[in-house]
Amino acid sequence: METLILDCQSIELIDEQFYQLCNNNRDLRLERNADGDLLIMPPAGRETGHKKAGIIAQL
Predict the structure, then answer these.
(1) How does the average pLDDT of the chain come out, rounded?
(2) Span 31-42, mean pLDDT?
(3) Which residue in 12, 14, 30, 35 has the most C-beta neighbors within 10 A?
(4) Which of 12, 17, 41 is nearest to 28 (CA)?
(5) Neighbour-count burial of 15, counting CB atoms closer than 10 A to its CB (0-12 exposed, 13-18 middle, 19+ buried)
(6) Number of structural domains, the chain?
(7) Residue 14's domain spans which residues?
């Protein structure tokens, strides 16, 4: 799955609603950008998680 970008400028999605949306869809990575777009990304895979853990360990 690639990153999907939804133009959400026509609706008002407040922080509390976005938080609830994230909680209801924990299997997805959701982000918002400054333009009001909603970015839907696939969950980090096992390999990505190991890379992140290695980077964090180095810090």
Answers:
(1) 82
(2) 90
(3) 30
(4) 41
(5) exposed
(6) 1
(7) 4-58
